[in-house]
Design brief:
hpI Integrase, Chain A, single chain, mainly alpha, 3-stranded antiparallel beta sheet, 15 helices, about 50% helix, DNA polymerase, domain 1
Length: about 350
């Protein structure tokens, strides 16, 4: 490296380095107001080159980005990058990676916990947990691959919580009331029919094409997911490996979907049959809920509703997990509390057994 003073009075750094392929390269940066600023930048580049954790948190994030970005789905990285840019770099960016302490992390946590937006609303516990997880992931990466002694987040402790609220769901009767009033818009009606009776995710629904349906076998294949990212339509693989699945539809639903797809003008095998967005679905759900007089729930709660219905019908957790694409059967067991009346039914049957 070399630092030079230029004619206009600013300072320039020329930095020569060897990249990961062994090739020698050179870069430079101009416009430093002082020699000290230029030398500080020079030292930072050297720390990055040597993976020396005396580098700043901001510089390590550049390493982390190079290591991780290509391994994650585009929408997943987009969410992660937004949190890093807006919640982590403003606080930790200039601090040395090897010198960030649990006390500094606790102070940062408290600022986020006490934050209120312009409406006086705090961050949700789930969001706080998500932000905490992103910071911890960066330090774990440094521990695992860059010889950081320990993750300071472990000593600082966590913030927020994993679940924001108890799962909401519609009973079959509530859904049928909703479906009855949403029939005035066929596209909306058939979309909600797929969500409720198959338990698929929003992204999975919005990626469906005619080629995904086999009406002879009454099946729909889930192999992709739709996202709207940075103003662009994006088709990705499903959320997890187990999300790739083939679902058998009830016969009435297969008939409905055959009629719907047939009605679509010049639809191709690879065209989306629901060319709408998640925000459109949410607005339609709010409209239908009001008109039907049923409680307001989220789109994703229709998936909870499907699982709840299957539990109430007596299907095993294993069978349900396969149908809805849960990565672990433990996720399915989390739904058991949604039908507290089952406890009364169990007690009644046990009472009968005792008397018998």
């Amino acid at each position: 490296m070399a630092v030079y003073k230029e004619e206009k009075g600013t300072w320039r750094v020329i930095y020569r380095y060897t990249d990961w392929t062994g090739e020698r390269k050179q870069t430079q940066k101009r416009g430093f107001a002082t020699k000290r600023d230029a030398q500080a930048w020079e030292r930072e580049q050297l720390n990055k080159s040597n993976s020396d954790l005396d580098m700043s948190f901001k510089s390590f994030v550049e390493h982390y980005t190079e290591d991780m970005k290509s391994r994650l789905k585009e929408n997943t990285w987009h969410t992660k990058e937004h949190i890093i840019r807006t919640k982590l770099l403003p606080y930790f960016g200039g601090l040395k990676m090897c010198k960030i302490t649990p006390q500094q992390i606790i102070k940062w946590q408290n600022e986020l916990i006490n934050f209120k937006d312009e409406r006086g609303e705090p961050y949700s516990p789930v969001y706080l947990k998500t932000v905490q997880n992103q910071l911890s992931a960066i330090f774990n990466h440094a521990v695992r691959y860059y010889n950081l002694k320990e993750n300071p987040c472990v000593k600082a402790g966590s913030m927020g919580k994993k679940k924001n609220r108890e799962m909401l769901f519609w009973t079959k009767d509530e859904y049928l009331k909703f479906a009855d009033v949403i029939m005035d818009k066929p596209l909306s009606f058939y979309a909600f029919e797929m969500l409720y009776w198959c338990g698929i995710r929003e992204g999975e629904l919005l990626a469906l094409t005619p080629a995904d349906f086999d009406f002879d076998r009454l099946t729909v294949t889930i192999s992709k997911s739709y996202q709207r990212l940075n103003g662009q339509d994006l088709i990705t693989t499903p959320k997890t490996e187990k999300s790739n699945r083939t679902i058998t539809m009830p016969e009435f639903l297969a008939d409905e979907m055959r009629d719907y797809i047939t009605s679509l003008y010049k639809i191709g095998d690879g065209d989306r049959i629901f060319p709408i967005t998640k925000s459109y679905l949410q607005k339609e759900m709010e409209r239908g809920s009001r008109a039907a007089g049923v409680k307001k729930i989220r789109i994703h709660d229709l998936r909870h509703s499907h699982v709840s219905l299957l539990i109430d019908m007596g299907f095993s957790a294993t069978a349900i997990a396969d149908r809805v694409g849960h990565e672990s059967i433990d996720i399915t067991y989390n739904y058991a509390h949604l039908f507290p009346t089952k406890q009364a039914e169990m007690a009644a049957r046990l009472n009968t057994e005792r008397r018998g």
